[in-house]
Specification:
single chain; Jelly Rolls; TPR-like_helical_dom_sf; alpha+beta; nine-stranded mixed β-sheet
Length: 1256
């Protein structure tokens, strides 16, 4: 950069500008023109520096194999950079034909040489400046070059933030999430942390992780730093997330609280009213400028749909009232009018509904939902032609509108046109996305059955008779080009003098294209060779010259709409087009009659008539009828479709369907669409999460972009894994002065030298300068099919001596998972104490958590319509008592016996044997044809209370020490307080098919599981070295590894070279799950299980626990094992002889002691009162009430709060940067911590002196 070209103030401005100003400096504003000018000149200057350096290397005559030539190859090519035309002087240089693009390894090899030519910070600054002027492709390219040159070096937080914003702009949400999570993990005090949390909230909401979304929204809400959204807007999204999760009462209270805000803008209020009145699929709201209409809308729709708000009549009146208020607050909202129309239709006010729909079309003419609802109204009134036109408008606007295609198919079928209906149903099935909620899947199941029925009927149908009656409706292809009738379309007079008179009311015609063709597999009968007609082949006919073109049809429609205000020339044009249109219709009618005469013979006339009659009334056997839902359709149904198809309301855009659809993952993004525009100004176009090539392909097609080769982008940049290798320069310098060899006084002296201008950095209990935790890559060794199905390590115990032998513990610790068979018999355990009968007798009213699940075979997991295998494991939570669940368990057993008896009567013994042997040999089990049978799984029964469960807990003391719930050799026994299910016993009550989805144990601790019986359980397990591969597969299947419920598809694991242990746990067997092992379990019979966690005092166990503790922090997931608190208790209570374990614990003590000292010094510098609080006996560890990380020793609470909520330093500073209003509480005296730290030393085991042998 030529310094002489910039003033001192401009240089200072350029130095200060980076990604943190994005969204806060509007360079399009005239008042900021001088800033934009400086930024653009700086971009040109930085690019000039890079080009000059590149030109210098090109002009040098260097041998190809010299290191300097490597430097030359690593410089960016000219065609990779956007350059002014004046720079394009060398054609070969511009096209990049002289050189090859760089390799990654060469870049690392000659990293130092390159920095002497173009410093990496040049690319970083260039990326920031491109970002500020919203040149996203160029910004990403510059960031990529900086990232490549800075590999294995220090990170730049502004770079991570800018890179996350760029990924966010390109809707690459999973990469953006990784980048922003890393940023917040490295520095939660980053100046734009609230903006990062805001974007993370949006992205988690789009991806369906609502719990994480709410957490990030709340963290952004409490932050006092400037934000691109107001607090009211953030609160609106939190309220909407409650609604999405069907927590309607909480959502309603949040919406109503928002309406009380004086600063609430009118548009958000309108949407809240509208939500109390109706719900929409395409949610395009400008809630960022005006908020009140938004709030009105949400409240209105909730009143319309949610039954818990009272009687239907009461709810409907409130819904209409709220929607009317929404329209008053925002009269231009077409969606509010549309939803009001739906409410009117729901109470049979057809005229009012139509007026609302028509007004909605005027306000938002591109809404396919509105046209679909208009079609429903017309169909109610027995106006099939108008209904056809409305449905066609809907599918032209949105070719993937399932409801419109379905309703159109019903319309064709009721009018006796099965071939058109068949095509419409196929289009409805094809348009359904990958993610489906249950009602959509049920509708698809109905459609599939209907398609099969029509397929069979059309295959067997004879050719139409010459005397068959004329079709009531034109075909899809013919209807596609018909103009909209004047009755259906109403335009305001102001559109008469519009600059674009060919604009069609329903949307842009350029986006419509040709009508969707009839499916090639349509089995309709054809005429003789050479006489195939348009109707038979489905090909679009060649139009004669008298046909109107698309533009002429649009012009005719426009002139019809405004014929009262036409001049003389326009009237003449209208007359000509109308006459030509009449000729066109007459020609089509004549062609249709001629085609029928040529293709239909009198021989088949009676058969054809009979077929058309049967098609209208016949239904396939055992055809399911769906339950009726609230909808636009009234009791006035078309009689011919009652028997052959479910009610139209169940297949249209019903109220309940809209209510459910908006609450699904794939459509939750619609609410977020316009919010995203706040940041990037573009319409969001969500991508499939597993499409990794989309961005790199997009970048490779941009000419002049400053890009790297696509393989580097795809494999190295977008994955983001190597980002975790970065650490802070500042942290490296400051922390290099600390070592576990220092005593507490030396630590204190070093802390005194740390700066207090900034708050203490986040405390990591990993090694100093260790990279951020990340999922490991799977081992590279390729496994054979036999190795992918390894035998499960197991041992059979004969007696008590074997159970207490040290070899048993060694056996368990060296395998990922192990089965100890015969344990109950060897130790004479009374497992009957844990039987259902004993539990009911002891505590019948004890609480049981119930999970409602779908019964499936253990090695399969199908979606709800059993169409394909999926990873998502559906489970719904409720609660009951032991006594009630025992009744269910017993009744299900009796039902099973009854079913087996009935099967035994219908099936001979030989048939049974054949079917079982065939099933076992095939290796693939058939889907349950009888439908999805639901079951209830009783889980997480707490047995921690010794007063209630004394006999049961005493019986477990018979176990060897390493497997006991409480033991000195068990880390979890040193926590000092109860962690339910980990250092206490939990019981599981199961019926066949009960599933524990895939997971690793909390903080990777080991687990003990004993089957009480009488039935078996089937286990699946994967070694901990492969958990990164499973986490990646969860991402590909759009499921959160930590928050989600998933059941792996075994073939997916085998394809990714991931081995799976599979075995049966019989009654009395103990399963040892080693640290980090991924596992999932399904019961084969009726049984109970007991389980708890243990923590062996080994370096591997402790290392995996703290790594998962830090990864949980990075993922914003709460670690229920307080590893810092546990580590200090271990230092108090035990003597460590293992060198590696000692170093790991000592490092944790050092990191936390340093952080406590630094925090106290910083707090005192802010004049905050520090009070000693102490700890009570068995008091639980503290977690931040906002971000849920563990808070050790130094607690922050608000002085004026009635209910004291603990805050970490970061969350306290978010609310008050100077900690005003907060009180600092100290749990331990600093002297006590220093004493524990100094006393924790490595103990060498004393060797016993060898005694000389003696004779006896």
């Amino acid at each position: 950069m030529d310094v002489d070209d910039f003033t001192i103030d401009e240089l200072q401005l350029i130095s200060d500008l980076d990604s943190r100003q994005f969204g806060f400096i509007n360079l399009e504003d005239c008042s900021n023109n001088w800033i934009r000018d400086v930024v653009q000149r700086a971009i040109a200057a930085l690019q000039n520096i890079i080009i000059l350096a590149h030109n210098n290397n090109i002009n040098e005559n260097i041998s190809p194999n010299s290191p300097t030539n490597k430097v030359k190859q690593e410089l960016p090519e000219a065609n990779d950079m956007p350059m002014p035309a004046s720079w394009h002087t060398d054609t070969e240089f511009i096209t990049g034909t002289k050189e090859e693009k760089p390799s990654i390894r060469d870049d690392e090899k000659y990293h130092d040489n390159k920095e002497t030519i173009v410093h990496p910070e040049t690319y970083c600054k260039l990326g920031h400046l491109h970002l500020l002027v919203e040149e996203y492709y160029e910004a990403l390219s510059a960031y990529q070059k900086y990232f490549k040159k800075k590999r294995k070096s220090s990170y730049d937080l502004a770079f991570l933030y800018g890179l996350g914003i760029v990924y966010f702009h390109f809707n690459e949400f999973r990469w953006s999430i990784k980048t922003l999570q890393l940023l917040l993990y490295l520095n939660p005090n980053f100046p734009c942390a609230n903006e990062a949390h805001l974007r993370l909230g949006f992205m988690h909401k789009v991806l369906g992780d609502y719990k994480s979304a709410i957490k990030h929204y709340q963290l952004s809400l409490i932050d006092a730093a400037p934000c691109t959204l107001t607090k009211q807007q953030i609160r609106f999204h939190i309220a909407h997330l409650y609604e999405v999760q069907k927590k309607y009462k909480v959502a309603k209270e949040a919406y109503e609280q928002l309406l009380k805000e004086r600063e609430l803008t009118l548009e958000l209020k309108s949407v809240i009213y509208r939500q109390l009145g109706d719900k929409i699929i395409k949610y395009k709201l400008f809630l960022y400028k005006f908020l009140k209409p938004v709030v009105y809308t949400r409240l209105g729709w909730m009143y319309h749909c949610v039954e818990i708000f009272g009687e239907r009549k009461h709810r409907q009146s409130h819904a209409i009232l709220y929607l009317q208020k929404s329209i008053e607050a925002n009269p231009k909202s077409g969606q509010s009018l549309y939803l009001l129309g739906r409410c009117y239709a729901g109470i049979n006010k057809v005229h009012d509904a139509f007026i609302s729909y028509r007004n909605s079309v005027e306000k938002s003419e591109g809404n396919a939902d509105t046209w679909c609802s208009i079609g429903v109204l017309y169909q109610q009134q027995n106006q099939p032609t108008d209904a056809l036109q409305a449905y066609i408008c809907a599918v032209q606007l949105d070719k993937n509108h399932r409801a419109a295609w379905t309703n159109l198919g019903i319309l064709y079928e009721t009018c006796g046109q099965p071939r058109d209906a068949f095509a419409c149903y196929l289009n409805a099935i094809k348009t359904t996305g990958k993610k489906q909620h249950r009602e959509t899947q049920n509708i698809n199941k109905v459609l599939l059955q209907r398609i099969q029925f029509l397929d069979s009927q059309l295959t067997q149908a004879p050719m139409p008779s010459i005397t068959s009656r004329r079709r009531q409706l034109c075909s899809i292809e013919e209807a596609w080009n018909l103009p909209i009738s004047l009755e259906m379309s109403s335009r305001q007079q102001q559109h008469l003098h519009s600059s674009n008179p060919t604009h069609r009311q329903i949307g842009k015609t350029s986006a419509q294209g040709p009508p969707p063709p009839y499916p090639n597999s349509t089995p309709a009968k054809r005429a003789k060779d050479g006489n195939q007609t348009q109707f038979q082949t489905g090909n679009r006919p060649t139009q004669p010259p008298l046909f109107l073109t698309q533009q002429q049809l649009q012009m005719l429609q426009y002139l019809q709409q405004n014929q009262n205000n036409l001049n003389s020339q326009e009237r003449i044009l209208l007359q000509d087009l109308s006459n030509q249109y009449q000729f066109m219709q007459q020609y089509q009618q004549n062609c249709f009659q001629a085609n029928n005469q040529e293709s239909i013979t009198g021989k088949n006339r009676e058969i054809s008539d009979q077929f058309e009659k049967e098609v209208r009334v016949m239904s396939p056997p055992a055809y399911p009828i769906m339950a009726k839902s609230t909808s636009d359709i009234t009791e006035n149904k078309i009689e011919s479709s009652k028997e052959s198809f479910p009610e139209q309301s169940d297949l249209g855009v019903s109220d309940q369907e809209l209510q459910d659809i908006l609450c699904q993952k794939d459509l939750a993004s619609t609410l977020t669409d316009d919010i995203l525009k706040t940041f990037d100004g573009d319409n969001i176009d969500l991508k499939d999460a597993d499409s990794r090539d989309s961005l790199s392909n997009k970048l490779s097609n941009v000419k002049g972009a400053f890009l790297l080769d696509n393989e580097f982008i795809k494999e190295e940049i977008l994955k983001n894994e190597s980002l975790y290798e970065y650490y802070s320069d500042e942290a490296a310098k400051e922390y290099s002065m600390f070592s576990i060899r220092m005593d507490s006084k030396e630590v204190m002296a070093s802390v005194k030298n740390l700066s207090l201008n900034e708050p203490p950095p986040p405390c990591s209990i990993l090694n100093i300068n260790a990279p951020a935790p990340s999922p490991p890559d799977c081992p590279p060794q390729r496994l054979t099919r036999e190795q992918l199905l390894p035998p499960t390590p197991s041992v059979h115990l004969e007696n008590k001596k074997h159970a207490f032998s040290p070899q048993l513990q060694e056996f368990c610790l060296k395998h990922p998972i192990a089965v100890v068979r015969g344990l109950a018999g060897a130790l004479k355990l009374d497992l009957g104490l844990f039987s259902t009968k004993t539990l009911v007798e002891a505590n019948p009213d004890h609480s049981v958590e119930v999970r409602t699940q779908v019964h499936q075979s253990p090695d399969e997991n199908w979606d709800t319509i059993q169409a394909k295998r999926v990873w998502a494991c559906i489970s719904h939570r409720s609660h009951t008592t032991i006594a009630k669940y025992a009744q269910y368990q017993a009744s299900s057993f009796q039902e099973s016996i009854k079913e087996e008896r009935e099967k035994g009567i219908q099936m001979s013994d030989s048939d049974s044997k054949d079917s079982l042997s065939n099933a076992s040999l095939s290796g693939k089990r058939k889907k349950n044809k009888g439908g999805n049978k639901m079951l209830r799984f009783g889980t997480n029964v707490d047995l921690s209370d010794e007063r209630k469960w004394r006999p049961q807990l005493a019986e477990l003391q018979k176990l060897p020490a390493f497997a006991r719930v409480i033991s000195a050799a068990n880390m979890l026994s040193h926590v000092g307080h109860v962690i339910l299910g980990m250092n206490t016993v939990q019981l599981y009550m199961k019926v066949p098919g009960s599933r524990t989805p895939g997971h690793q144990e909390n903080n990777n601790f080991c687990s003990i599981n004993i089957n009480i019986g009488p039935g078996d359980c089937e286990w699946f397990a994967v070694p901990d070295a492969y958990w990164g591969g499973i986490q990646s597969l969860c991402d590909k299947n759009c499921i959160s590894y930590l928050h989600g419920s998933w059941w792996p598809v075994l073939e997916d694991l085998y394809k990714e070279n991931i081995p799976v242990y599979r075995f049966i746990q019989r009654p009395g067997d103990l399963v040892w799950v080693n640290a980090g092992c991924v596992h999932w379990v399904q019961s084969v019979g009726w049984c109970n299980n007991i389980a708890w966690n243990v923590g062996p005092l080994t370096a591997r166990q402790y290392s995996l626990a703290i790594e998962r503790y830090e990864w949980n922090k990075l993922q914003n997931f709460k670690s229920i094992v307080p590893m810092i608190h546990l580590s200090w208790n271990l230092a108090r209570n035990i003597r460590v002889t293992d060198t590696k374990l000692f170093e790991l614990i000592k490092m944790c003590l050092l990191q936390t002691l340093k952080n406590v000292m630094h925090t106290l010094e910083y707090v005192k510098s802010k004049n905050v009162v520090v009070r000693f609080h102490g700890r009570g006996k068995n008091e639980a560890s503290h977690y931040c009430g906002q971000c849920e990380i563990e808070v050790f020793d130094v607690l922050f609470i608000r002085e004026q709060e009635k209910r004291h909520v603990v805050h970490c330093m970061s969350c306290a500073r978010k609310q008050s940067p100077n900690l005003q209003g907060f009180v600092c509480l100290e749990e331990y005296r600093l002297s006590e911590l220093c004493q524990i730290y100094d006393a924790f030393t490595l103990h060498k085991p004393q060797t016993l002196p060898q005694s000389s042998p003696t004779n006896h």
